[in-house]
Specification:
Shape: flat
Number of strands: 0
Radius of gyration: 25 Å
Order of helices and strands: HHH
Oligomer: single chain
Length: 82
C-alpha cells in the first residue's frame, strides 16, 4: 500500500515574521500601545459604521414586509405585558 503524503508550503517565514511582530509590540510602552489602539479604532470606525447601516437597512426592510398584527404582538412581548 502506497502512503500518500501532502506537501505543505514552507510557513517558517510567516511564523518568524509573526514572532518578530509580537516581540516588537511587546517592547512598546503602554502609551504607545494605547496610541496604536486609538489608531486602529480610527481606521476601523468607517467599517463599523457601514456594518451598522447595513444592519439597520436589513431590519427596516424586514419590518416593511411584516404584517402589522405581528409587529404589534412583538411590541407587546417586548414590553413584558401579556
Amino acid at each position: 500500500m502506497v502512503e500518500s503524503r501532502k506537501n505543505y508550503p514552507d510557513n517558517s517565514l510567516i511564523f518568524a515574521q509573526k514572532a518578530q511582530g509580537r516581540s516588537e509590540r511587546a517592547a512598546l510602552s503602554f502609551a504607545e500601545k494605547l496610541a496604536a489602539l486609538d489608531d486602529l479604532r480610527t481606521r476601523v470606525a468607517p467599517i463599523i459604521r457601514a456594518r451598522e447601516a447595513r444592519k439597520r437597512d436589513r431590519q427596516a426592510f424586514r419590518a416593511a414586509d411584516m404584517p402589522q398584527k405581528f409587529l404589534t404582538d412583538l411590541e407587546v412581548l417586548a414590553s413584558g405585558k401579556r
